[in-house]
Structures are given as C-alpha cells and as structure tokens.
Amino acid sequence: MNRRAMLQGVLGAGAAGGTLLSDLNSQARAAEDTPIPVGSALPMSGLAAADGIEFKNGLTLAAEEINAAGGILGRPIELHIEDTKEMGADLVTQAMQRLIDRHSTPVIINGYNLGTNMAEMDVAADNDVIMMHYNTLISHNEKFKTDPDRYYGSFQGDPPEYWYGPGCLNFLKNLADTGQWKAPNKKIAIIPSANEYSIVIANAIRDKAKEYGFEVSLFETVPFPTNQWGPTLAKLRQDPPAAILVTHFLPQDLAQFMVQFLQQPTNSLVYMQYGPSLPAFREIGGANINGVLYSTVIGCLPDDYAKPFREAYRAKFGPTAAYLTGSQTYDGLWMWAIAAALAGGPGEPFNKEQVAKVAAAMRRNVYRGVNGTYRADPAGQSAYCYPTQVADPSLGMPHQFLQHQDYKTDAKLVAPALYATDSFVLPPWIK
Q: Which residue, 84, 199, 210, 276, could crosslink 281 as a Cys pair with Cβ 3.0–4.6 Å?
C-alpha cells in the first residue's frame, strides 16, 4: 500500500482516522528505511579462501558506496555472508538456502564455487531470487539454455571459460606475427588440472590449436591441487615446446611450478591461468615469476575509469589487496542495485513478478564497470568476451593478458591493444 492509498483509505475518519494515518505513515517510513538483505555464498575458508576474502571485500566496498549514495530507492543494503568452505554442490546450495531462509535475500552475489555442477541455479529458480556468480563456466550457459524461463534469475558476471582457449591462441599468434616473439617451433604443451574449469579451457586450446598454426606436443592432466611438478617438467624437458600453457589456477601451486621450472628451464613462454593475479603467487614465487604471462576474462582494468576503485580498495583493505578479484563482486552488486532501482525495488524471495522485473533490467542494461563492459548474452545469460566473441569493445568484456615483469610490482597489461598499458617483454629465461 502506498501513501496515496493510505490517505484515501482514512480520509475523513476524524480523530481516530488521524491516529490511524499517523500510525500507517510511520509504518511506511519504517518500511522505506528497512535494509535490503544481500546475500553471498563465498569460500571464506579452505583452499579458495584467498579469493573468498577478496570477493567479500568487493561486496563490502560496493555496499558502502551504494549506501552513501542513498541506497536503493532510499533503502540501505545489508550484507550477509555464508562460508562455502571446501565448496561443492551440497555446501554451496545449503549456504544459499540459509541466506534465503534466515535473511530473505532477494539476491545472492557469489564469486566462484568449485564442483557445484551449477546447482546454484536451481536454488535461485526454486526461490525466485536473483543469483549472479563468477564461476566462469560454459556449463552455466548450457544449463540456462535448457529452460530459460526457469533460470531467468541466474546471471554469470563474466564470459565462460571456453573463451580462454581461442583467446590464448590468438594472443600467441599475434606475438609471433608481430615479431615480439620468435617461436623456436610450433609446439605447445597444455597442462590442465583435474577440474571442470581447467579441462574446458585446455580442451578448447587443444581443439583450436591447428587453426592458429600450432601443434600440441603434450597434454598432461595433473591432480587438483598439486605442487609436485617434477614428472610433468621431465616430459617438457624431453621435448621442449615453444609455449607451456598451464590451465591449473591455484596461485600457490603455480608459483611452485615456476620455482621448479627455473631449475632447468626450456626455451618456452609460460602462460598460466588466473592464479598469478593473486598476491600469493608473487609472495611465494618471488623473482622466479618474472616473465610469466597470464590472462583473465574479468579483472579490474588499469585505466582512469577504474582508478578511484583501485585506490579506494587498497586504501581500505591493504596495499597488496587483490582488486582484480574483488572487482568482480563489486561490479556485480552495482549492476544489480541499478537494475533493482530501475525495476521499482528488489522484490523478495518467491515474488516472481517483481524479481523478474529486476532480471529484465539486468538483461537490458549495458553496464560499464571497473572490469569493462557487461552485456548479457541472451542465449546464455553471461557476459560477452572481447575480442574473440564480439569485435566491439563497447559491448564485451576484455580478455586481458598480463605479464609479471617485476614481482615487486603489479603485473602489466599487455593485451588487448585497446586496453594495454605496457609492451610484452621476453622472459629472462629465454636466451
């Protein structure tokens, strides 16, 4: 009931009506000031805790800024976090359901959670809430396609991992074509770990390698997690490739790869997946990581637009805080908040009519955040990837390639060209 309806309902009711009007208006003002609960199911402990902390940091900063700006139609945001620990379908879905049951969260914004088989989408559908996540999985798109009406409220805030494959090959080919890298041969070695994310990327590289002029000399799957790289390195040294592509992503394990690789390096570029963006990679690897390439389909850009965020993030959370990770949930909360305001409010669980309006606004809006541009692909409800999926940088999220050139400083963005701040340098172990 809005205030006009309340006025009409009690007009002319005398003293008793005046008292009732005062009571109703007080209730309305109280409702307007009631915080909006925003949930997040994050790995705050366990093997992905480093990322979980950064995801929480991003949400915290976004919530503070949104509240300082007046909240959502005057209502402040209140965060609620549930720990998904070692992740997996049971732990993640239970954490999400607790957020809904205990706090009536109309939205759940997650970072990534491993081993869920996208069961999160069913929790969102069964409770009619918005769920945005950064699992970076093509399985999200595939599940969405099976029943778009059911999964209307599920959004992936970045492109699926598949696009890492052709993007990496295109990057290597461009380095060779422009003379920045003189490849000793056409061989590439692909080293995934035993998880869906790593395997999908590795398979995409393998399947597309020939199209970009490369041949796969080694495809070696390692355990997840692992820090024992000896057997794999022995195979690499027997038949040295031009590039070693490691699609495993835990930073501590990748740092150990470099420590062990440099004991007897091959004349190969080393590309790694995501993990080098985290402080642990630099802290553990030290000077051994200089020259390593890595990429991310989502991460805070080093541009002027994102500068206030980068500065505020490290001022609040420390000089080594990984804003490339926290930026994901930061953008996610801002996107949802704008859509909820445009839709007339966030709704609540089981209010499909209102939540569907919020989802429609999220699909319609093109949002330029600190990670680049988010536009929902209607066929899969995840972000488009620039430049391998779309050629227009204003309509896709940039697939960023970075290089650690000095472990004492942040990595340098070397591609794509429209976003690059620095040039690629030949790794020190290549002679």
A: 276
- 367-369 and 400-403 as β-strands: parallel, antiparallel, unpaired? unpaired
Contact 280, 251 (CB under 8 A): yes
Lookup: tokens for 201: 């990327």
Task: Check pLDDT > 60 for residue 12.
Answer: no
Give just the sign of the alpha carbon dihedral 227, 228, 230, 235.
negative
- The answer to whether residue 146 is domain-embedded is yes
Are 259 and 403 members of one domain? yes
Q: How many domains does the structure of the chain reveal?
A: 3
Q: Which amino acid is at 207?
A: D
Three-state helix/strand/coil letters over 54-100 = HHHHHHHHHHHHHHHCCCECCECEEEEEEECCCCCHHHHHHHHHHHH
Same domain membership, residue 405 and residue 264: yes
Question: Does the pLDDT value for residue 11 go beyond 90?
Answer: no
Domain that holds residue 22: 1-33
Cα distance between residue 59 and residue 340, in whole Å = 16
Q: Are residues 24 and 49 in the same domain?
A: no
For CA atoms 11, 16, 19, 25, give the dihedral sign. Answer: negative
List the 293-296 sheet strands across, edge first. 215-219, 187-191, 243-246, 269-273, 293-296, 400-403, 412-415
**Residues 47 and 29 grouped into a single domain:** no
Cβ–Cβ < 8 Å for 108, 135:
no
